[in-house]
Each structure stands twice: as C-alpha cells, then as structure tokens.
Design goal:
Radius of gyration of chain A: 26 Å
Number of domains of chain A: 3
CATH architecture of the largest domain in chain A: 3-Layer(aba) Sandwich
Strand content of chain A: 15-25%
Helix content of chain A: 40-55%
Number of strands of chain A: 12
Oligomer: homodimer
Strand order of the largest sheet of chain A: 2-1-3-4-5-11
Structural class of chain A: alpha/beta
CATH topology of the largest domain in chain A: Rossmann fold
Order of helices and strands of chain A: HHHHEHEHEHEEHEHEHEHEEHEE
DNA sequence: AAATTTCATGAAAATGTTATCATTGTCTGA
DNA sequence: TCAGACAATGATAACATTTTCATGAAATTT
C-alpha cells in the first residue's frame, strides 16, 4: 500500500499537521522534530499526493496546452518554450491534440478544465468566433499562441503575420519580381488570411496586379507544394516568383520545379515561411520568415503563470518580432 | 464560484449520489430523474472535478511521458502515437522533459509519481543501471520506449538497433563498399552502442577491418555531421562510405563533402538513420533506416494502459519492425 | 395474503491533503 | 508572582467526489 502522510506522522511520533508543515517548508516547526520527520519520510519512502493536495488548495500547478498537431515541428518548438518556463515555476503540462477539428477542440478544452488546469494555452492557426466565446467563459486562465481573437479580449502572443508577409513581398518587389504566384492553405483561417493580406498590400502599393488564378490552394506540406507547382507549370501561366505558406510547401514546390526542368532561383524564385532547420541546409537555401517559436511559447507560459498567480484580469496582446531570412531561393536581385 | 455536484443535486432535487450516478452513467437510475438531473447539469453548467474524482477512485486516467527533448521530431512522432491511443482510451498525457540529464530524470519521475500518473512512458537513448532500479521500484506502471533494460525486467517497445545497423552495413558491403567511417554519438549509450555493434558484426563477418580512427564522435545534429566530415576529409584518411547515427548527421556530412568538392554518392556514400520527412526530398535522397516511431508510441501506450487497467505484472519486450530505405546517398552498387 | 425480490434513492464514510483554531508550555517584563 | 506574548504542536474541518449500506416502495413469487 502507498505510504501517506499519517504513516509518516506515526513513524515520527508527531501529528499529520506537523508532517505537512515540514513537507511544505513552513517555518514554525522545531529543528529537532523537523529532523525526525525528515528521517521518517526517508525511511517510509513517502511521496506527497499532489492530487489530494490540489483538491485542498484548489490549485494544480498544471497548464493545459491545446495544440493542433504535436508532430508539427513548429508547434513542438513552442511547446519546448512552454516546458522550460514551466520547469522554472514548478508547473506541469497536460497536452491535448485538437487536430484542427472543432469537436476535438471542445472535448480537449472540457478535459483540461475538468482536470482543473490552472491555465490553458491555445495554439492554432485559426480561432472560430464560437470558440472564442467558449474560451472567454472558461474558468481557467487562457492565453492564445500564434493566433489572436481580433477583438483582443483574450491574451495572446504572436507575430504580426500581415506585416511579415508584407515585408517579404516588398523585398521581392524590390528585387524586381513582377509575376507573383501564391501557394496557400485550402482552409481559410486567421494566419493564412493575414499573410495573403500582407502580400496583397505590398503588391497594391507597388501597383502590381495579383492574378487570382495564381493564388493556389492546397495541402500545406511537401506534397501539397509539389502538386501545386506541378499544376501551375502545366497551366502555362507566366510567373517568376512563388510565395508559399511555409517552408515545407516551398521545398515541395522547388522539387517540382526541378522535376519539370526549371531552375530555382534562376527561372523561378520561391519563398517559404517559418524557417525550419532544414531550410538552411537545403539546396537552394530557402528564403523565409523566422518566427521565434520557442520565445512565443516561453512568453505565453510566463504570462499565463502570472495570470494564474495574481488576479490581473486585463488581457494583453504581445507581438513577437519576426525576421526576414534572405537566402538563395529568392535572391536580392531577380535573375 | 465553481458549480459542484451538490449544486446540481439541489437544483434537481435529488441527492448527490444520484447526480454522481447519472454523471458516471451508472444504470440504476430512473429515466425521469435522470432527465431532470441532465437538465440541472445543463442549467448550472456543471463540469465534474476530475481531481476530486481521482482522489476518490485512486486513478487519474493520466499517463506521464518522460522525454529527453520534445523538440526532437523523432520523439514527437512517438508522442503523437501515444496521444492518439490515449484519446481512444480516455487518458491524458503529462509531459516532462529530461534533457538527457540524470537529475532532471529523477525530478521528472518524482513529479509524475506525485501527480499520481497511472502509468509512465520513459523515452530515451540510454538508461543507467541506477535509474533502471528506480523505475522498477516506482509505484506507477512503466513502459520504456526506444530503449530497454538489458535484463528485460521492465516492459519496453523498440526496434532491434543492432540488427538494423547490421542489415544496413551488410547492404553497403554487398554494394561493394570497403572503407567504412562511422559518425556516432559522443556519449556512449544503449542505442549508440547497439548500432555500432551491428555495423561491427557485419564487417567482421565480411572480414573487413574497421579502422578505429574512422570512428568519429561528435554532436548528433547537422552541424556535428558537418564538422565530423570536414575533419575526416582534412585527415586525408581513405574511406568510401560514412554511416551516420541519424539523418541530420548525414545531411551535415553530405553538405560538408560537397563544400569540399566531393560528390555524394559518387565519391562518398552516406547513410543515415531514422528517416525524417526531409530525407526523401533532400538531394541526394538519403539511404536510411525507418523506425516506426508513431507505432512504437502507440504500442507503448496501449501496453501501458492495459497494465494500468488489469494487473498483469509480467514485463514484455516488444520488438518493432524496422525497414531499410534504400535511396540515392548509398546506391545498390558502389560507383 | 405473506414473503421475497427488485428498483430507486439517500445518508454518510472515505480518499490524502492543508489550514484554521485551540492548546500547552515556556519565556519576558512589570 | 503573574499577565501576556510567543513558539510548537495537535485536532479537525474542509476540499468534491464515489460507493457502500440502508431504506422504503413496488413488483413478483409462493
């Protein structure tokens, strides 16, 4: 049978209250009895029961993370940031995959609430109006990562996607590119929309027309990028640059271009987004936008823990810095 | 204030026992009162408190995962497998990074035990004798992933690393390669050792001598691979194939070879291990060994849940299948 | 009609902690 | 010498559930 606090108390010949005090490092206990209790703890191998403790103190020291897909390296890096901060402040993490599905989202949230997470980090590319409402009414503290509710009623940490996409597109325009193709997500969503908006603004400002037929939608992975490029090349449309939703899509697009006998960046320039580790080692190295995912996770966690431990109720939106990473796949001057 | 079971009971004009019964779907309750209780639950917005429940029933429906580094995609894929199985059986996951550090390992384990995880999955590349002992004495059920205690006293799920490395080396020998270099982990450890053993056995059988100076140790990432290859080329030693600890190392090695004006695979063949998604899209495509990480995670989780819910106490070692993936970086016939 | 079974429900104990309040000495200062 | 302060400790009431046992009513069997 598991040893509990009363067993230790019996062994050390003190009351449970005293044992609890030494376990929790509460000062009002005689040095000698403390010693005796410590002895008893070691002898019995007592480990406090955090569940019972949580029930009593009404805190679990646990954060929930809702994440679309833990096997996506982008999110993983963010989780790592959360993890590290949690380590410092003695919190733990309960993971919950949402798979981009609204039902799973609701289920996940319910479970995290039922398990009494002190706070919850919601990570995603999109956030429905309805779920925003649900989150606002949740009893746990909430911080959004990588998305925001546009009203700013929930706290969030993310980069300015619109402006990042704008900057990247501007750079392409300055380099001399004229015919833009876009490989974006099939599903409309917060992040996707912002990025397209950014590109569009840059083109508008430069007086460049964006041909709607050059905005392709597909799966946001290597294969998706490959097939979008293949399709686009087959269409015979003119274009000299492709801006992709992320680096995987860019890699797929580059391979497809090569398969079709086109050179990147000589014939076609390609940009990605997110800056995976491979983007620096791929040939050609991929021009992209770096989001500080680790930092975003860390900041979100830090905010959330602060919210749990004080009762500041005001929501804050933190804009993390991004960085345009210029590499080979889109040179400074169009070839 | 949070609404609890007694509030629902009052609202529905029944006892808490009855509410508990309908919440837990225990059949012995009249259809009509059940209806009334359900009504009251909806009206009050009651969500059961899993902490209190766990304290009473002495189960948390929570699995702990100890993992060296969640940002390593290999482990992430495994976590995904665990997650999916947990979803089916209504378990949750508490994550805990161990960072390959023995102290962190102990801390992690303690926390997971204190939080009363029903079971714990230990993932890693190595397992010290001492920690094996600690795990064996843990009150929670334990399953190892990717490693095993060599005595088989703990349950585990992993591929046969020795034999995978043997097969891969054999393939290289059959292709005609003669001068083997190895890029492996600086730290000796279970997985690393097994893989080197496997290569060595294949070479021994073929009567090929393995030059100790061609076994290089370094960081197991792209940069490590790059610097090992650079160093090896500078040494002027003869070699025609490099077998790497994983695909990242292989990618680094390939880039370094190219930087030095050598062609892969024409001048030097390179093999990896683990088969990341990029290995199929990199140029050259990387010859490697695929471990079914998702399945390993899923099987481990399934085993663990079974162990938690029955009381079979016998430990089982499950050997997952691996697959040699022949691609361009090591062709079937040496050039 | 009596005895037995079944069904629906409630009261209350138990789960392992923490924290409040009370108690007992011991010490300090007038 | 004694009131008051203080230090160390213990009893015990929460915390929100589940589950056992008891109870009474209704249904069924003898």
């Amino acid at each position: 049978m598991k040893v509990k606090i009363v067993d230790v108390a019996r062994e050390a010949n003190v009351s449970v209250a005293t044992v609890s005090r030494v376990v929790n490092n509460i000062p009002l206990v005689n040095e000698e009895t403390k010693e005796r209790v410590l002895e008893a703890i070691k002898k019995t191998g007592y480990k406090p029961n955090a569940i019972a403790r949580s029930l009593k103190i009404q805190r679990t020291n646990t954060l929930g993370i809702m994440i679309p897909d833990i096997s996506n390296p982008l999110y993983t890096e963010m989780v790592r940031g959360v993890e590290d901060i949690c380590g410092i402040y003695n919190y733990n993490i309960i993971l919950s995959n949402t798979d981009f599905s609204p039902e799973k989202e609701h289920e996940s949230l319910d479970v995290l609430i039922e398990k009494q997470c002190d706070g919850i980090i919601y990570i995603g590319k999109n956030l429905s109006e309805e779920f925003q409402e649900t989150l606002k009414n949740a009893p746990s503290e909430i911080v959004l990562g990588c998305v925001s509710d546009e009203k700013g009623e929930l706290s969030s940490v993310l980069i300015d996607n619109e402006s990042a996409a704008y900057d990247l597109a501007k750079k392409a325009i300055d380099a001399g590119y004229k015919n833009f193709a876009l490989f974006y997500d099939r599903d409309e969503g917060f992040v996707n929309r912002k990025r397209i908006d950014g590109v569009r603004r840059a083109l508008d400002e430069a007086g460049i027309e964006l041909d709607p037929e050059l905005i392709l939608r597909g799966n946001i992975n290597v294969k998706g990028g490959h097939s979008m490029m293949t399709k686009l090349l087959e269409s015979g449309k003119e274009f000299d640059i492709v801006m992709c939703m992320n680096d995987q899509v860019a890699i797929g697009a580059i391979r497809a271009a090569e398969d079709a006998g086109r050179k990147v960046p000589d014939d076609i320039a390609v940009t990605g987004f997110n800056d995976y580790w491979i983007s620096e080692w791929f040939d050609p190295k991929i021009t992209t936008v770096r989001q500080p995912m680790y930092d975003i996770g860390a900041i979100a966690a830090r905010m959330l823990i602060k919210m749990c431990e004080s009762d500041e109720k005001e929501s804050r939106t933190i804009t993390a810095p991004y960085e345009i990473v210029a590499r080979q796949s889109m040179p400074e001057h169009a070839c």
